[in-house]
Each structure stands twice: as C-alpha cells, then as structure tokens.
Specification:
Blueprint (H helix, E strand, L loop, with lengths): L1 E5 L4 E6 L5 H4 L4 E6 L11 E5 L8 H12 L8 E6 L1 H13 L5 E6 L2 H7 L4 E6 L2 E8 L4 E4 L9 H18 L1 H9 L4 H18 L15 H10 L7 H18 L7 H11 L12 H9 L9 E8 L2 E8 L1 H9 L1
Helix pairs in contact: 2-3, 4-5, 4-7, 5-6, 5-9, 8-9, 8-11, 9-10, 9-12
Bound molecules: glycine.
Length: about 325
C-alpha cells in the first residue's frame, strides 16, 4: 500500500512494507535517531543516536545533546535523519532534521500505532518546554514514511490502546462511517491505519500550517489532554490516554455551551471506555492548574481559551474565546 501527502514544503511518500524489507530501504547516509527500547528491535550498520524512551526525551536538553552527537559524527547536507520510534522520537528527530545544517532529508519509521496514524505525517516536529507541550518546533514533513505494521505485534497492549485514542478521534471529528467500523471491531489494523492516514493527509494538504481551522480539528481532545499531561509532568497517563479523557471533557464542554448535539459526550465516553481507554480522572476537580495550562496551548490567543469541539459525531470545528466558567463546569461535571 502506498500514499502521498502533497504540502507546500514537499511530497511525503508513505509506503507500507514488511519488516524484513526495512533494512534495505534505509539509505547508507542515514543517521538513525531512536530510543533505548526500540533500538533493540532493529539491527543495522547505520550510525545511531539513542535517547531514553519516554516523553522526558522530548526536551530542549535532549535536542541539544542529539544535535551535538550527530554533528560529531561528521555529517553533511546529504545526511538523512531517520526517526525510528514512536511520537517522541519522531518529533525530536524531526526537529533535529529541520534545524541541523539548516535542514536535511528526513525519514520516519513509526513503531507505535500512535505514530503510524498521526505524528509521522503532517510535519509537526518539536520539543516540550516547562511552559507546555510542543511549544518549540517547526513544520518539517518527512520526505518518506515507512510503515511496518509488524512493529505493532511487539508493542505492549497499553501502547496499542494508547494509539487507539487517536484512531477514535478521527472517527469522532470527521469520519463517522469509521466509527461503525471501529465499533464492529472487525477491520484489520492495517486498513484502520490507512484510513486514518488518508483522513490526515487530506486535512494537511488543505491546511498544512493550521491557518484555516481545519487542521485544528485534529486537536480535538488535545487542549484538555495536553493540560492533563503538563500538570502531571508527563507521567501517569500516556498521550492517548490523556486525550481520551480530554475528548470526553471537550464533548461535555461543547454540550454545555450549546454547540454539541446532546448525548454526544455519553457516546464518546462509551466508545472510548469500550476501547479500554480512561474517560475520567479525579484530578480534573483541581481546575485552576489545568486552565492555566490550557492558556499556553498554541490555539489560545491573548490568554483566551480555544478548543476544537464536536458539533455532532463526525463533525468538529475550532471555537475561540470559550468562557472559563463553562470549562470549569465541563472539567468537574
Ligand atoms: N497531531 C495533530 C496535527 O498533526 O495537526
């Protein structure tokens, strides 16, 4: 299976391939950036920089460390940076590829479901800062994405479920028929990954730099989800788990402000719970740190909160200047 994503910056070629063919597809000029868990899964003679697994590696200090290690290898502008790993490695390595020598070719090999369906395409790369998630970065679409679904056979069950949060998100925001497929539970994972990428590709081609509000719909559940991750110091919940809770809260928020069809939040919660994802967290009652974190979300303007909210299942839009009282009520309902 193949797909292309055409943006202002480049064309991303996406290929699905067996794991056995991966080695021969990695160019000899590649420097692989990976983490200490994934590194053990792929043997190759390529130069390699390894970071600790987990969100804390998506930091300014790890970025500087990786850049220094790669520069010390004696690279040139024909060097290709390969991200081998999940979303953390992809975002970190992509930011390195965007900036080292003012930008070199970038290849993504996503090894988690979350990275396969979301973060490996669209070019959002970067690192977290103490002020919030993804606040420093660039748009650097990969030139090539190589998807080996066999990686998922080795993925811990929690990580697979984590990725399913982003899969359900696509269904909630604009692909209602996908919801029926997901509820049926019969579709092969490869077909689900392809459908999600197809959805994201169309969105990114139309609104690469998130200016029209269309791409912001991919952020459904993320204003609250990122805030949860931030107040917890990126521990306790994985990204997909935090946005799962975020999707329920934001559906409730939409209902409270009269935008979202009544009953939507209950359906979102039922679907996510059936997928084994968390739909609530006691810490939501402590609203002020969460709201403070939401103010540093990139969709917020002038300190006013913004959310990508459902109008109904299968339709989503960016809503600015949402009043804080409603946000408090949605968090604590
Ligand atoms: N993950 C959301 C986006 O790429 O815009």
């Amino acid at each position: 299976m193949r797909m292309q994503v055409r943006t202002h910056s480049n064309v991303t070629h996406i290929d699905f391939l067996p794991l056995a063919e991966l080695q021969e597809r990695l160019p000899s000029k590649a420097v692989i950036v990976t983490d200490d868990v994934v590194s053990k899964l792929v043997e190759s003679d390529h130069r390699r920089v390894t970071v600790p697994s987990g969100e804390p590696s998506k930091s300014m200090s790890t970025y500087v460390d990786v850049v220094q290690q790669i520069l010390s290898l004696g690279i040139d502008r024909n060097t290709i940076i390969v991200a081998l790993g999940g979303g953390v490695v992809g975002d970190l390595a992509g930011f390195v590829a965007a900036t080292i020598l003012r930008g070199v070719t970038f290849l993504q090999v996503p090894t988690t479901l979350l990275a396969m369906v979301d973060s490996s395409i669209g070019g959002k790369v970067g690192v977290d800062t103490p002020q919030g998630k993804n606040l420093v970065g660039a748009f650097k679409p990969a030139d090539q994405v190589l998807i080996c679904p066999e990686f998922l056979d080795q993925l811990p069950a929690r990580q697979l479920t984590n990725g399913m949060a982003e899969v359900w998100k696509y269904g909630f925001i604009g692909n209602a028929p996908e919801l029926e497929k997901l509820r049926g539970g019969q579709s092969p994972l490869t077909e689900i990954i392809f459908d999600c990428l197809d959805h994201k590709a169309r969105v990114v081609e139309e609104d690469e730099f998130e200016t029209s509000g269309l791409r912001a719909t991919l952020n459904y559940g993320h204003t609250v989800g990122h805030a949860i991750e931030k107040v917890l110091g990126y521990e306790m919940f994985l990204h997909g788990e935090a946005i799962s809770i975020g999707m329920v809260v934001e559906a409730r928020l939409g209902e409270l402000i009269g935008l979202t069809e009544p009953g939507t939040a209950a359906q979102v919660a039922e679907d996510l719970a059936s997928a084994g994802l968390p739909i609530s967290w006691d810490g939501l009652r402590d609203t002020e740190p969460l709201i403070a974190a939401m103010r540093s979300d990139k969709k917020a303007t002038g300190g006013n909160l913004a959310f990508s909210l459902l109008t109904r299942l299968g339709d989503c839009k960016l809503v600015r200047d949402v009043d804080q009282e409603s946000v408090r009520a949605a968090l604590t309902a």
